[in-house]
Amino acid sequence: MAEGTVSMAEVETSFQKFAVHGDTKATGKEMNGKNFAKMCKDCHIIDGKNVTTTDVDIVFSKVKAKSARVITFEQFNQALTELAPKRFKGKGKEEAVQQIYGLIAGKDPANAGVTKVAKAAAVDRLTDSAKYTGSHKERFDDSGKGKGKSGREDIPDTSGYVSAYKGSGTYEEKVKNP
């Protein structure tokens, strides 16, 4: 292996990580077009000038089998070999391919633009059950944990006493001790 080259194992590891990204059924042996485009974007192969998303899609279509919707690692290497001279203009084919591998090796799919949990003061204020009033406050216990169904439903009192009667439960004692 020459100086400045990247091991194919590292490139293959990155290929597998991107191949399974966002697809629970993926094995990592084949990559679909969406993930190939994502990889090209995350690894800065798409630079917006020399290589665009359209170029990546065209190359993907070119290397995949006619009816297939995925590419293997071999076809992936073929695609990179086609993209390399475009991305690194003025470099020899081999050097360009090595540089493109250098961009990919050791990379993981970036979760850019993934929704972050909002931690604003407004959200804290709105979700603090200690500040709830009226019937809403009945839905939480003292620790602020929801009571579930018992906090939402009016559970009928079947004791036989009218509500707010202070002496409930004392009838038996009165009958026994007149």
UniProtKB/TrEMBL annotation:
Region spans: Disordered: 132-178
Main location class: cytoplasm
Query: From the UniProt record, which GO molecular function terms apply?
Result: electron transfer activity; heme binding; metal ion binding; tubulin binding
Query: Which SUPFAM superfamilies is this protein grouped with?
Result: EF-hand (SSF47473)
* Keywords, sorted A to Z: Cytoplasm, Heme, Iron, Metal-binding
| Domain Cytochrome c stretches | 23-166
Q: Where in the cell is it found?
A: Cytoplasm
Give the GO biological process terms. Answer: microtubule bundle formation; microtubule polymerization; positive regulation of protein polymerization
Q: Which PROSITE patterns match?
A: CYTC (PS51007)
Where in the sequence does UniProt note compositional bias of the Basic and acidic residues kind? 135-155
Q: Which InterPro entries match?
A: Cyt_c-like_dom, EF-hand-dom_pair, TPP/p25
| GO CC entries | cytoplasm; microtubule
The entry's family comment says: Belongs to the TPPP family.
Name under which the protein is recorded: Cytochrome c domain-containing protein
Native organism: Xiphophorus couchianus (Monterrey platyfish)
